[in-house]
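Project standup — Tuesday

K.O.: blocked on the structure for the chain from last sprint. Re-posting the sequence here as requested.
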Amino acid sequence: MTPQEGTSLPVRSMEVARVLAEAGIAGRVRELTESARTAAEAAEALGCDVGAIANSLVFLSDDEPVLVLTSGRHKVDTTALAERWGRGKLRRATPEQVRRATGQAIGGVAPVGHPQALPTVVDAALGDYPRLWAAAGTPRTVFPTTTSELLRLTGGLLLPVGP
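H.V.: unblocked you, prediction finished:
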């Protein structure tokens, strides 16, 4: 039984909560009254710095979906990141491609709870914050986490994603 069974969380968020519980992550999924679709909205709703929001962005590299967990304080430099990561050119996935790859909609993509694990980069800038917030499967659900938890949960690689 997950720590959140019996709650009224959306189905996609319950899947994220299940994965977190199975991984021994203490942070619980919360449903916000306001939208957290963007990093700025999430930071405002949570009362934290926008940089402490871990955005889950899906890109395609050689037609394979990949996940980039980036700090809300900056944008991904796709050329620089592809070179650092040793991957082919990165291009943003369409909303349909995001949903196929993650089972979740843009604005609510969690780092976990996808049909299959995606190759993942975790932005080194997230390490500047002792507590991060990530989406939990919908634009109104989030969970607290840390950079080390994100790396462990996703099997990701810690890299700078800016220029």
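K.O.: great, moving the ticket to review. The beta strands are 30-31, 53-61, 64-71, 90-92, 120-123, 132-135, 141-145, 157-159. The helical segments are 11-22, 39-46, 78-85, 95-102, 147-154.
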